[in-house]
Amino acid sequence: MKSVITGSGIGIPKNVVPNAMLAKIMDTSDEWIRTRSGIEQRHYVDPGQGSAELGMIAAEAALAAAGVAKDAIDAVIFATMTPNYFFPGNGPVLQARMGLPNIPTFDIRQQCSGFLYALDLADSLIQSRKHRRVLVIGSDVHTPFMPWQNGWDVTIGRGDGTVTPEQYAHNTSLRDRTVLFGDGAGAVVVEAREGDARGFLGSRLFSDGSNIEALYVPGAGFRDRPFVTHEQLDAGLTVPVMEGKAVFKEAVTRMPEAVRAVCADAGIEVASLDLLLIHQANLRIIEGVAKNLGLPPEKVPHNIERYGNTTAGTLPILYHECVQQGRIADGMLVCFAALGSGLHWGAALYRA
Ligand code: UT7
Fold it and tell me: 119 and 262 in one domain?
């Protein structure tokens, strides 16, 4: 029995925000963002469009690509750290709005590694023979984390560009994080197949919570009563905190370790990978991982320049674009890898 990806789709919001638009509302520049991260633009949702809505667009497209009817799907896994509601998760939101049967829906977090963990779970559900057709979604919207003052219309070219010195200073205080992130979703259908050469060959997942402060949201948690307060909002405690350099270092060491481990488990040389699809957090990280593993750039595609970091969305969006571009041929060995808040990280090996 193999778990095979039979279709994929993406949900990308329409508002395109080039680096230059961010430079209108804070002290940053196209040059700084490109040089440090490789990002040229990102997409922003409009208010009212959440990770569930983007995920639904991606899911509908994935079902169509797979040629699978809604009533044939028997489980959903929705990976997001930015659900529409605190609870319930996006699973039942999507299930009802898409008109899926009353099947189980799993809501998982794992942030930037969310889609990787979701793939592993889908494979496990199929291998256990509990489910045969699993819809897997990775979707995140980061714009609600960004408490910009008078910034939204300006960034998407609707406003007059007026930002007061106080607003500009406030926006600048968050620039090290906000410029990196965008909104986006991807989805795949994973199906049980007998006697198919394609399918997942294995995965290695890891967690290390010894320094969650490296990348976390300090406020709006259930240690406090109520779980979010005016004081927390005023102090900016609902905005993610990131030790950029520390996370960078973890990413360029842990992801290669995971890729080596999953290849060793399968008895495969790293050099024989045809494609390595890495979480899109920073082009320098992607290049660093490729170099560490001795893989040439053509085997390590990226699209961070167009979307920024969409957290759980990056891997399915990248996978889908590679399929669209004809970069994934039958028989190819594809490796997925990710690292993010938790820390959670890992790699999965797939025969296309
Ligand atoms: O997906 C989740 C996982 N997250 C990651 O993988 C992120 C990993 N880390 C990174 O990608 C990089 O560390 C960053 C892109 C976040 C930062 O790059 P860096 O080369 O580590 O820059 P830095 O934090 O050392 O900042 C260098 C300078 C600072 O100024 P001083 O102190 O040298 O005067 C910052 O204040 O750049 C300044 N800076 C900015 N300048 C213009 C920080 N953000 C900006 C900005 N525009 N947006």
Answer: no
Inform me whether the pLDDT recorded for 306 exceeds 80: yes
Residue carrying structure tokens 């959440």: 50
Q: How far apart are CA 151 and CA 161, in angstroms?
A: 8
Q: Is 309 a catalytic residue?
A: yes
Residue with tokens 């494979």: 123
Question: Where does the pLDDT of residue 150 fall: very low under 50, low under 70, confident under 90, or very high at 90 and above?
Answer: low
Please tell me the pTM assigned to this model: 0.97
β 133-140/184-193 pair status: antiparallel
Residue tagged active-site, from 131, 282, 309, 322? 309
Kindly state whether residues 7 and 150 are assigned to the same domain: yes
Q: Are 334 and 346 spatial neighbours (Cβ–Cβ below 8 Å)? A: no
CA of 32 to the centre of ligand 1 (A): 9
CA neighbours within 13 Å on the CB side: how many for 330?
Answer: 3
- Does ligand 1 lie within 6 Å of residue 110's CB atom? no
CATH code of the domain covering residue 160: 3.40.47.10
Q: Which residues contact 172 (CB under 8 A, 6 or more apart)?
A: 26, 27, 28
Query: Do the Cβ atoms of 278 and 286 come closer than 8 Å?
Result: yes
**Cis ω before 283 (30° cut-off from 0):** no
What is the C-alpha to C-alpha distance for residues 27 and 32, in angstroms, rounded to an integer? 10
- Has residue 303 got a pLDDT over 80? yes
Would you state the pLDDT for residue 155?
82
CB 273 less than 6 A from any atom of ligand 1: no
| Ligand 1 centroid, distance to 236 Cα (angstroms) | 19
Residues 103 and 218 occupy one common structural domain: no
Answer whether 37 contacts ligand 1 (Cβ < 6 A): yes
Catalytic residue (one of 43, 112, 320, 322) = 112
Distance 176 CA to ligand 1 centre (A): 5
Distance of CA 6 from the midpoint of ligand 1 (Å): 38
One-letter amino acid at 38 equals G
Over residues 162-172, the pLDDT tens digits come to 788 988 998 99
d(CA 94, CA 295): 38
How many beta carbons lie within 10 A of that of residue 167, not counting itself? 17
Catalytic site residue 322? no
